């Protein structure tokens, strides 16, 4: 049997378990500046990932894929109907030739036998009917072909519109990414200039707390409220904070963040 871990032993970031560190008021104010830059960088990174153009481009790409499929279907239909029309035309050709030949033979009087002439006239009638049926079928194919061609044209026009929109969106996305990157570089440069001025132990504490608090390791105490967790400091803690020397690094009892006193703290 193993005994459960003792609940009394709390290892972690709770301020009560840590040895308080000292840092000058200036160093603490400097930490707030670094925190503001870090928050700005986090926000810029978030904006970079969630640009509205990215979502729109994603949706556009789905529509473009669907449109491409529809266009391929329309082009296949056109090609199939063209083949069908060519076949209908080649079916008609020999029938028309035979009709012309027969009519010529009837007209030029080369067939003198009345029985042969009558059968020739009958065949002409039959050929005329046959041509009529074949032409009707061909006409139907031609109508379908015309429809398929105009569907293809419509799809191509839609694709052109989509391509234009995509080009516009890509340009806007790149423009915004460039602006965000410029802003981000400025924040990083400013941070890099400030960090060496911060005492190493304060920086280490800040880095550690920030890592477990969504990137916010330090918060300003404003009007007796921690701006990290937004909670008001209770009366007992407030008395401790008032009594604490200016170079003592305070921690919020609620969220464990480094709490920096300023003129706005209301102490
Ligand atoms: Zn707090």
Structural commentary:
This protein has about 270 residues and is mainly alpha-helical. It has two domains: about 15-50 and about 195-260, no CATH class; about 50-185, Orthogonal Bundle (Helix Hairpins). About 70% of the residues lie in helices and about 5% in strands. It has helices at about 25-50, 50-105, 115-195, 200-210, 235-245, and strands at about 220, 225, 250, 260. The chain has a four-stranded mixed β-sheet with strand order 2-1-4-3. A hairpin with a 2-residue loop joins strand 1 and strand 2. Helix 1 (about 25-50) packs antiparallel against helix 3 (about 115-195) and helix 2 runs antiparallel to helix 3. It is rod-shaped and about 135 Å long. The chain starts with about 25 loop residues before the first helix and ends in a 6-residue tail after the last strand. The model is unreliable at about 1-15 (pLDDT under 50). Zinc ion binds next to loops.
């Amino acid at each position: 049997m193993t005994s459960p871990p003792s609940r009394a032993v709390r290892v972690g970031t709770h301020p009560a378990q840590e040895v308080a560190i000292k840092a000058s008021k200036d160093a603490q104010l400097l930490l707030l500046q670094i925190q503001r830059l870090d928050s700005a960088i986090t926000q810029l990174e978030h904006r970079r990932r969630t640009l509205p153009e990215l979502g729109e481009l994603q949706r556009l790409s789905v529509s473009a894929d669907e449109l491409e499929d529809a266009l391929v279907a329309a082009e296949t239909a056109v090609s199939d109907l063209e083949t069908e029309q060519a076949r209908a035309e080649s079916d008609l050709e020999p029938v028309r030739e035979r009709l012309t030949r027969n009519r010529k033979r009837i007209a030029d009087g080369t067939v003198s036998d009345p029985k042969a002439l009558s059968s020739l006239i009958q065949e002409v009638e039959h050929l005329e009917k046959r041509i009529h049926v074949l032409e009707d079928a061909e006409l139907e194919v031609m109508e379908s072909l015309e429809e398929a061609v105009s569907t293809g044209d419509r799809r191509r026009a839609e694709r052109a519109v989509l391509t234009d929109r995509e080009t516009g969106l890509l340009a806007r996305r790149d423009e915004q990414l460039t602006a965000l990157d410029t802003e981000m570089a400025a924040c990083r440069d400013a941070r890099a200039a400030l960090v060496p001025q911060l005492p190493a132990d304060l920086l280490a504490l800040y880095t550690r707390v920030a890592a477990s608090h969504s990137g916010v390791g330090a918060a300003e105490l404003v009007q007796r409220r921690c701006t990290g967790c937004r909670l008001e400091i209770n009366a007992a803690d407030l008395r401790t904070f008032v009594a604490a020397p200016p170079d003592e690094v305070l921690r919020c009892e609620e969220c464990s963040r480094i709490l920096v006193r300023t003129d706005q703290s209301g102490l």
